[in-house]
Design goal:
alpha/beta, Alpha-Beta Plaits, DHBP synthase, Nucleotidyltransferase, domain 5, 30 strands, hydrolase, carboxyl- or carbamoyltransferase activity, zinc, zinc-finger, Carbamoyltransferase HypF
């Protein structure tokens, strides 16, 4: 007969101080038993008649970094019944539980590094409530021996803290102090160690205008004085990043002077994930070189003790941008930094704790909630699946070519990997292969189904095809824009049987279901399938891939199509118009595309924004969005667009734009009218579908919906309708893999439901 309970706790419960929390809770309630980690999470054996109050407290009072998915109870026998409650050693190996993402330094550790004591000024201070996790993890269960801290033997003082269940460092695997933990040093450009306190010397160099490579949590940053325009110009030249916005790190008090922060912004900045948060900049507070042409600023708080110490010593805001050449993966190793950052960084602030996993900073927005880049602090946090996806097999989604990320579906959860980069770059493609192997091993993922984009030129698709052949696995082809739609539905936890949805899916380019290049789509459907209801009128991508880099090409073809060739000749008099028109007429390297991204480029070029070329993806559209902020949402008279059947024609829009240019209208008004016009045309199609009873909600997805102004104008036009939006998963191609696994899973269930029942 049972005299106790076995309590299984599933979720993010390892490496977050959950076992000492359970120990303290049991002692508080006078209960006996034990708690331990195992591959499924936390297992508690509790000697008591009624565990209800204890179980309720497990959820209600869990540690800050814990997340409880489920608590399961079963009768158990304890023989003999222990006299007290203890913490038992971890058991088994495996990956059925969540892994905790890296977490920003907690207030207690921040206070500790600032106050007299053995950790004052120590750059690697952490506890169970903060510090490195995924970036140092080699295997599960999460114990020190399976991290890059394994080589640092604990000193007696740290050992005492580590073994004391009443201490906040009980079983904090990265625990360290100056006696036994990682060390920090500063290297000059010649590779020689710079004598003196490395933090003080680094801060002095930054004040003198130096650019430093700083080894952080998931990789290196390039740091410099955010207030010094000449230094920023030098950084951009060395990094080959002429215009892409740079992130700024500063204490919250300083950030409030640089940007307009709401309560939502502050809450997101203070989140343990410590992302870069996009906020409205205060004009004139920082040099234009930080974010040329932008009205927003990417800001973050210091999230490691090293950052806190460096900023305190420097006394001002610092640019903190990924340490790499533009387009290459972020640097993570010391030797790699010495080689890759030579000629970029004047000195390197290094340490000897190895980074095992490359993790860029996450980039997010609080108003409304949006994730633009999902990485450090968010990964490997799992995503709950919508109702109707219970009992899914293990599935691997391979993502796309740009903003690559993979997604593992296992045990009713989806694990979307960190941002890996663009697979056109050979170094990023190699990183993609490493990440796939790493995640399969770490999470013991054995997919039964693969899902990928059908584009034959995508590196991710080729990898999926090779894996399917090698292991005899089914490969589900999920078209690009359907994957965007499914990702939005899944992000919003739309039920599998929730009914058809209208998807406004806008991005740069993706292979469409008819074999042409799509990018400005209205789809209707759900997880299993979707059909094209409407789309932007296709226009030639004049010069192929060059059309994405040189906006004037898109303006020329759109103006010509609208009968406004004279305007194009005037705007682009110094460009090879005749040769481009001849190539388009002959169909040479000019495939048709309905791309919304290229439509934005065309309008931007008409206003002289990046007409000759973009230095980074989306630059023209981002500058156009910034111009539109001159007017409130809903205040601008929308430019008209025509609809003929399924085609949304922007020709009337360009005629109205030409008239505005002719009368000298302000660029901000033109930008606002364009955003409003595109949103109004799309909203009208969506509203008609719902009014006709063919759909019950609207979903907004695709990289173009990172444009907050367009999203807001769409919401204005869709008022009164149910609108689904991204909040946890990127709307851009970084969310494709999540959509792919949901489509594959839904089709798997469809097939199973279609099978006749056996006798």
């Amino acid at each position: 007969m049972s005299n106790a309970w076995a309590i299984r706790v599933r979720g993010q419960v390892q490496g977050v101080g959950f076992r000492p929390f359970v120990w303290q809770l049991a002692r508080e309630m006078g209960l006996a038993g034990q708690v331990l980690n195992d591959p499924e999470g936390v297992l508690i054996h509790l000697a008591c008649a009624d565990p209800a109050r204890f179980v309720a407290a497990l959820r209600d009072r869990a540690p800050p970094l814990a997340w409880v998915d489920a608590v399961e109870l079963a009768p158990h026998v304890l023989d003999p019944v222990p006299a007290d409650f203890s913490i038992a050693p971890s058991q088994g190996e495996g990956a059925e539980t969540r892994i905790t993402p890296d977490a920003a330094t907690c207030p207690e550790c921040c206070a500790e590094i600032a106050a007299p004591g053995r950790r004052q000024g120590y750059a690697f201070t952490n506890c169970t409530h903060c510090g490195p996790r995924y970036s140092i993890l080699a295997g599960l269960p999460y114990d020190r021996a399976r991290t890059s801290m394994a080589g640092f033997a604990l000193c007696p003082a740290c050992r005492a803290e580590y073994e004391d269940p009443g201490d906040r460092r009980f079983h904090a695997q990265p625990i360290a102090c100056p006696e036994c933990g990682p060390r920090l040093w500063l290297e000059g450009g010649d590779g020689a160690a710079v004598p003196g306190d490395p933090i003080a010397r680094a801060a002095a160099m930054l004040r003198d205008g130096a650019i430093l490579g700083v080894k952080g949590l998931g990789g290196f940053h390039l740091a410099c004085d955010a207030t010094a325009a000449p230094v920023l110009v030098r950084l951009r030249a060395r990094k080959r990043r002429p215009a892409k916005p740079l992130a700024v790190m500063a204490p919250e008090a300083l950030l409030a002077d640089l940007a307009e922060l709401t309560a939502a912004d502050r809450a997101l900045l203070r989140d343990p994930a410590a992302p870069v948060v996009l906020v409205p900049a205060r004009a004139g507070r920082l040099p234009a070189e930080v974010a040329p042409g932008m009205t927003t600023l990417g800001v973050m708080l210091p999230y490691t003790p090293l950052h806190h110490l460096l900023l305190a010593a420097f006394g001002g805001p610092l640019v903190m941008t990924s340490a790499n050449l533009s387009g290459a993966p972020q640097v993570i190793g010391n030797a790699e930094a010495r080689a890759a950052l030579a000629g970029i960084a004047d000195a390197l602030l290094l340490h000897d704790r190895e980074i095992l996993r490359r993790l860029d900073d996450s980039v997010e927005r609080a108003r409304p909630p949006a994730v633009l880049r999902r990485a450090r602090g968010r990964v490997p946090g799992t995503l709950a699946l919508p109702p109707g996806f219970e009992g899914c097999p293990q599935i691997l989604g391979m993502g796309g070519q740009m903003k690559a990320a993979i997604c593992l579906l296992k045990g009713g959860q989806a694990m979307l990997s960190q941002h890996l980069g663009d697979l056109d770059d050979a170094r990023t493609a190699a990183e993609f292969d490493l990440a796939r192997a790493d995640m399969a091993r770490l999470f013991e993922h054995r997919p039964q189904i693969l899902a990928a984009d059908p584009h034959p030129g995508y590196r991710a698709t080729q990898a999926a095809e090779a894996t399917a052949r090698a292991h005899g696995l089914p490969l589900v082809a999920v078209h690009h824009h359907h994957a965007h739609l499914a990702a939005c539905l899944g992000d919003a936890l739309w039920p599998r049987d929730g009914g058809p949805v209208v998807g406004l899916i806008l991005d740069g380019t993706g292979l469409g279901a008819d074999g042409t290049i799509w990018g400005g789509e209205v789809l209707r459907g759900g997880y299993s399938d979707a059909e094209r209801v409407a789309h932007l009128a296709p226009a030639p991508l004049a010069g192929g891939d060059r059309a994405a880099r040189e906006p004037w090409r898109n303006a020329l073809v759109r103006l010509d199509a609208a009968g406004l060739s004279d305007l194009a000749d005037g705007l682009f008099a110094d460009h090879p118009r005749a040769a481009l028109r001849a190539a388009v007429a002959a169909g040479v390297n000019a495939p048709l595309s309905s791309s919304a991204g290229r439509l934005f480029d065309a309008v931007a070029a008409c206003l002289g924004l990046c007409a000759e070329g973009q230095s980074y993806e989306g630059e023209a559209a981002m500058r156009l969005e910034a111009l539109a902020e001159a007017l409130p949402v809903g205040a601008a008279d929308p430019y008209p667009m025509a609809r003929a059947g399924a085609v949304l024609d922007p020709a009337p829009l360009f005629h109205a734009l030409a008239a505005d240019l002719g009368r000298g209208a302000a660029p901000g008004l033109i930008a606002a009218r364009f955003h409003a016009g595109l949103a109004a045309a799309l909203a009208a199609v969506a509203r008609a579908e719902i009014t006709a009873g063919r759909a019950v909600a609207v979903a907004l997805s695709g990289g173009v919906f990172q444009n907050a102004r367009l999203a807001a104008e769409c919401m204005h036009g869709l008022s009164g309708l149910r609108v689904l939006r991204h909040a946890r998963v990127p709307a851009n191609d970084g969310g494709l893999a999540f959509g792919q696994v949901l489509v594959a899973a839904s089709r798997h269930f469809d097939a199973r439901e279609m099978r006749p029942e056996s006798d």
